[in-house]
Amino acid sequence: MPKLEIEKNNLRSGVLKGPVLFFIVCCLLFSAASASAFEAEVRYVIDGDTFILDNSKRVRIAGIDTPEIGRKGKADQYYAQEAKDLLSKLILGKRVRIDFAGKGIDRYKRIVGWVYVDDVFVNKYMISKGAAFFYFHEGNDSGRQKLLLQAQRKAYKGKKGFWPVVSKLKKFNMPWVGNKNSRRCFLPGDKYAKKISWRNRVNFSSLGEAFYDGYSPARHLNLWPLVK
């Protein structure tokens, strides 16, 4: 075959490969996006941040934390039942869409996700009502996490939900120490606070200041009052 004809064939081949390759890439991206989201009906609500689907899978709502329901005879944390009731009214018996957050599965084998019912972003809704607080995770979508933090600032300022009571606690108004890496905060005398390097250490005049900056108290500190 003449050299000129070979060059023409190569050129035509290259032109064809472009659109085909683009189509394949788009299909792969679409498949990946589809694989990271699904819909299902909510069968049971465990508490303000966890529920069970009709296929028996448990879902942990990403980026939020709510007061704990008491188990095995233990008392509820303040506002735990209100948070559960609020979530139940919003999603129980309804079909929700779940987008996987981070790795999608936590160490307890629960699905972790961004949850939507109709046009409502459930994660943000719970925070905006003062029934949950923002809980940062490094692997989660930064845009959605910013939305949650903004909702928290408004709820705190507007004295929604649990904020009026919690903000009056003695520990809430004491100085706290934050870890820039984990976005968790501790009381100054806590053993974990002492392990924070000076580079990652940030001091807050109160827990309210820490919450405003997107930090949340370490779980072992048990800040929330109990309801007997």
In short:
It is built from six helices and 14 strands.
Essential attributes:
228 residues, alpha+beta, OB fold (Dihydrolipoamide Acetyltransferase, E2P), 2 domains, 5-stranded mixed barrel, 4-stranded mixed sheet, 6 helices, 14 strands, 34% helix, disordered N terminus
Description of the molecule:
It is a single chain. It is built from 6 helices and 14 strands. It is α+β, with helices and mostly antiparallel strands and 228 residues long. The chain folds into 2 domains: 37-157, OB fold (Dihydrolipoamide Acetyltransferase, E2P); 169-227, no CATH class. Strand 7 and strand 8 (120-121) form a beta hairpin. Mean pLDDT is 88; it is low at 3-17 and 19-34.
Note the gap between the termini. 91 Å
Order of helices and strands: HEEEEEHEEEHEHHEEEHEE
How many DSSP helices? 6
Helix content: 25-40%
Strand-helix topology:
Layout: H1 3-35, E1 37-47, E2 50-53, E3 58-61, E4 64-65, E5 76-77, H2 80-91, E6 95-105, E7 111-117, E8 120-121, H3 122-128, E9 133-134, H4 142-157, H5 163-166, E10 176-179, E11 184-186, E12 201-204, H6 207-212, E13 216-217, E14 226-227
Parallel strand pairs: 3-7, 11-13
Antiparallel strand pairs: 1-2, 1-6, 2-3, 4-9, 5-14, 6-7, 7-8, 10-11, 10-12
